[in-house]
Amino acid sequence: MATIHFNDFTTIFMMALALGMDAFSVGLALGLQQLRLKRIALIGFTVGIFHVLMPFIGIILGSFMSTKLEGIAVVIAGILLCGIGAQMIFQTFQQKSKQVLAPAGFGLVLFAISVSLDSFPVGLSLGLSGAVAFFILIIFGIVTCSLTWLALLIGRRANHLLGAYSEVIGGSILFGFGLLLLF
């Protein structure tokens, strides 16, 4: 069994922070919706799970596919974020109807996938096996889950300060991140 030195752990932790920052940024925008604490917990946990699953799938498929799938993953993530952001913006101008893509059910899965797709090529490039790969994946999940919770809680607090404009601001941020990924 491989041992992990402090420098290795620092590198892994910094990589996890880098991968989790998109979930943090998007989580800030999503947190501007009126979310209950139970929903926030579920969202963070789901995003953390996907940040474990995506690199795991990447490790299984192997590094030979990384160049082909990396561009596709970014495009898909951009389209998903633009769609979620546009839905949030348009929902603000409608009567209080049911959300088309709420952070629950299928909408939650789409959100988790969109912020986790960038970890897929990381898994492809890691090419590790055994206990060390498991350790890295768990760190990715824990860090991303924590960052998502923090962002959602900050966004939730900002929602109380911004009121009705919070949905438009959050949707605009998500749409902007989507455009940034696409272009």
UniProtKB/TrEMBL annotation:
Family: Belongs to the MntP (TC 9.B.29) family.
Keyword Transport: yes
Keywords annotated in UniProt: Cell membrane, Ion transport, Manganese, Membrane, Transmembrane, Transmembrane helix, Transport
GO cellular component terms listed in the entry, alphabetical order: plasma membrane
Regions crossing the membrane: 12-30, 42-65, 71-93, 100-120, 132-154, 161-182
GO molecular function term, any single one: manganese ion transmembrane transporter activity
Annotated compartments: Cell membrane
Protein name: Putative manganese efflux pump MntP
Main location: membrane
Membrane topology: Multi-pass membrane protein
Record keyword Ion transport present: yes
Functional note: Probably functions as a manganese efflux pump.
